[in-house]
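Box S2. Input/output pair 1.
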Amino acid sequence: MKRLQVTVTALACAAALLAASGLLRPAHAALTDNLAVSVKAMSMGNAVTADPPGVDAIHFNPAGLSRLEGDVKQDNFFGASIRFKSRLDKPEGFDIGGWKDDPVAGTSSGKMRQKIYLPGIGPSKFSLPAAVAAGMGFSFNRKGSPWTFATAVYVPQGVGIVRPDANDPTRFDGQQVILQRLVYLSPSVAYKVSDTLSVGLAVPIAHQSFALNTDMRFPNKLLGIIGKLQDAWCGDGGNPLDALGFGLCGGGKEGRLRPFNKAGSMQFDMTAPVDPTFNLGVLWEPKDWFAAGLVYQSGTRSTLTGRYSFQAEPMLPRFVEGMYSSLLGPVVAAMLGFPTSIPAEQSGYATMKLPFPAHWQLGIKLKPMSRLQFNVDVNYTDWRKWDKLEIQFDRQVNLLQMARLFGQGDASRLVIPRGYKDPVHFGYGMEIGLTKGFKLRFGYEPRKTSVPQSAFDLIAPLPQLNVRSIGFGYEAPSGLKVDAAFSYAKGRYNIPHDTSCNLNCTNFFNLIYNPYAGLDVSGTTTLRYGGVSITQPF
């Protein structure tokens, strides 16, 4: 068998502005591991380490390349659709600093479309109901030689979502999110040590990209309290005494703090054009009915560079303007190191450390009958490296200067806690030979999430997903092989209020971004994807 496969007035401002930085958390976790690398692997629950799938062995176990004879070309075509459906509900006793009616409460997310990142260009201008991709690979072996060489183009990681509705209630946690890793060159070699043992090495060289576009709001209790204080102190026409105080009224009605209003928006577009890793594999095939395989895919501490842009709605700039128009406001601002203004837009260049986690996969193949085969793999990914993300800006960012009160002394650098975990999960595959050239395949992969409930968000809501797959393979007498597969997964999540401080916490001084503070958030994540692969000698 061959292949299977991120004073009170001063406190409020600082909390709100630092919260904006909490959005810089890319959307990926266990959802992205191995999903659409190989058509055969898809159909076998990705349990193919002991039965590496042709040229796709470059990723799953490069030692398996030694089973390929002659020169082989492989073309892969994939399509994928991701849907996040979220519901926002107000629990009993909901209160954010005196504000009790959140306009998004009782609503659900709207439609969703897919996008891809085009290297050298950026996020595609168009979006589609499903993302489409293609890849190809080549292997080279001289008859009788124990050496096999190969290279391939594939996508080991990819999430690209767009919420096109301008009023989608979930737009405050990512209106557009793209995290994509494209391997464009993967020099690989396998050596057949003996008739039963092979080893292999692959060096995938990837283009890593991250793009984020999101609206922002800050439903923080402190913000709400100050907004209520402004209304009481300023009334409808302002207060003449305010000029002798802290400037609560100086920004006019536009400068009154509202915890549920849109405060601004943010965009990031960052890449690492050359980001290499390596895959080491071992394949042991002592019997026709049994084989075992092991692969280690190294991680990398990727450094992405690119541009950032913050746009502020009038609320916060006018609030700061009012503060500086009073007698005591500038004194307090100077003591805390606040900027004299918040620009409507601030942009520049940034660098981000984005670890790509290492992955281990161990599997066995059992073939109790000539036309029946079972595969089982165990997977481990070191997502614990995502304990924090680091962003370095090219200048002091005015927004972050207001966070000095909370220990953020350097407004040109930001460290964001994440707290991911590294779960172990299994994959199962079965192949049935219906005729000499036609095989039917089934796969099941219960994927544990790497995102704990305390770090859950809607940028990419990733609950446990049970992936079910079906596929077939046909091999013609000429050596032409055609494989096809379809996979479906659905997971549910329920995040009660105050359980995730990336989503809905109401802590008085919580500085992590909580766009849905105090709300209960629930929903589903649905994934549909399929592919076709054509392999032939050349």
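Box S3. Input/output pair 2.
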Amino acid sequence: MNEIRVRRDLAMETRDGTRLMADVYFPPGPGPFPTLLYRVRGSKSSGFIIGAILLNPVVAAERGYAVCIQEVRGRGSSEGEWEPFVHEEDDGVDTLEWLVAQPWCNGRVGSYGTAYTGFASLAMAATGHPALQAVVVAVSGVSPHDGWVYTNGGFELGWNTFWTYLTATESLRRLPAEPGEKERIRTVLQADMESPVEVVNRLPITSRDALAQLSPHYWEWLDHASYDPYWEKVDLAARADQFTARVLSITGWWDNFLGAHLQLYRELANRSPTGADQSLVIGPWDHFTYVNVVPTMAGARDFGPEGMAGPAITEPLALDWFDRWLKGAPEGATTRPGVRYYAVGGGGWQETPLWPPASMVTPWYLQGGGGLATVPPAPAPPSTYEYDPADPTPTRGGRTLMPTLGPSGVQDQSELLGRPDLLEFTSAALSDPVSVAGRVRLRLWAASSAVDTDFAAVLVDCAPSGERWLVADGFLRARHRNGFGRTDWLTPGEVVEYTIDLWDVAWTFAAGHRIGLHISSASFPRFNRNLNVALPPGEGTLTEAVTASQAIYHDPDHPSALLLPQV
């Protein structure tokens, strides 16, 4: 009889004396075994966390792996103070040293995780520790400054509010406060979580009383809007040359961490000694698809059985990857280096040795009167709109995760048409399909009456029936247009060239459809609204805010263009 054994509450002491707690699942037999490490932000006893996200440790044990599930510092029953991102490298290395010293570990270790646990796995890989041979991460971040807390200079208000309040509930139990004060904080926290719309509308956005003691990092993040040494020390992409573990990276076209996975892929391919051995899988998913009741839905679009997400797809991919690199069994491992991606509307799952596949970047130029065409624009006055911070353009789907505030993924944008703060540019109806696979960018010439403002861009598929389906979205805070480590205010009225990154996608615009582009100056509440004044993101109210007059140029001297990688 094959029996899976579990040892509960094993303590490991870090270099500073902090005890981290773990459960270990053992396969049948005497060992030693290749070992998988899963460092979790929540409870190691949670059935959802350990078995319903990426892979089930019981299944891994049946495959011959010992599986160590450890609670990170300051979470669950582990000691220490919870400081997001800060301790994961050192604590991860200490855990690896502890693992390889155990008689049941054969010295070959793999690690896996999603979201924060994925970051914890990559933090170990960034140290180049020789015991860590393979890593599997899904829907996770790499550089917390760009793609987690901020994206292209904008503070991710919806995601940070959701995630910070979620982790604050975990911190409340451990808070060293008098019973009366603890109850007061509990009451305020509960009220805030029951009123998420009211919370994100508060100005200044630092006014989060319930988080003052539970999540002090929220204020630290707002104090460091630019990329600086605070972020550099937790930037894993900056140390891609130290990665020696082979990385399998799994994400979705509308996951809020898609940009991080693409950045990791590019950095490892260019700088890691094992970069050629990595694998990238991109499905038709948003972040919530993995745990959705219908795990084939990405927003309002259902991709059917072929678009299935969750452990049904990630578990066999991960275990095959570990078999390849921890057991030396490539002949039985179907998960191999390269890129597997889902081409929406253009053939389903595809494979290519490198991302992106061969394509030609085609400029689709913005035209006077709201057109979009492959011919350069004729002379025309700029298109204009007013952006009022008191009524910001709302987020409608896209690459975000804020389930208490609105949906993500593929959503119809047509309900936003007619807003005075949004411009639409569309092509003529396509006579032939247009397939796009790769990085989408917008080269935009624009002027603003303000010293700072935002520009948001959404690539849409305009259906003959009138829907505008979100394909990809991008955002840029003007003050960070020359780099996220600096702040450059605008000269009001000056025409400036911007490059807005809409990240990557694989999508076919069908014949009879039109390619569309929406331009606005907000995506709220995904990003904190720009008050159009020279203030840090955490400061200011509508009293200080000003309305910005925006001008989008599209003429021979200012050829604004949507850059599509056409296959």
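Caption for Box S3: Residues 10 and 370 are 64 Å apart (CA to CA). The two ends are 54 Å apart (CA to CA).
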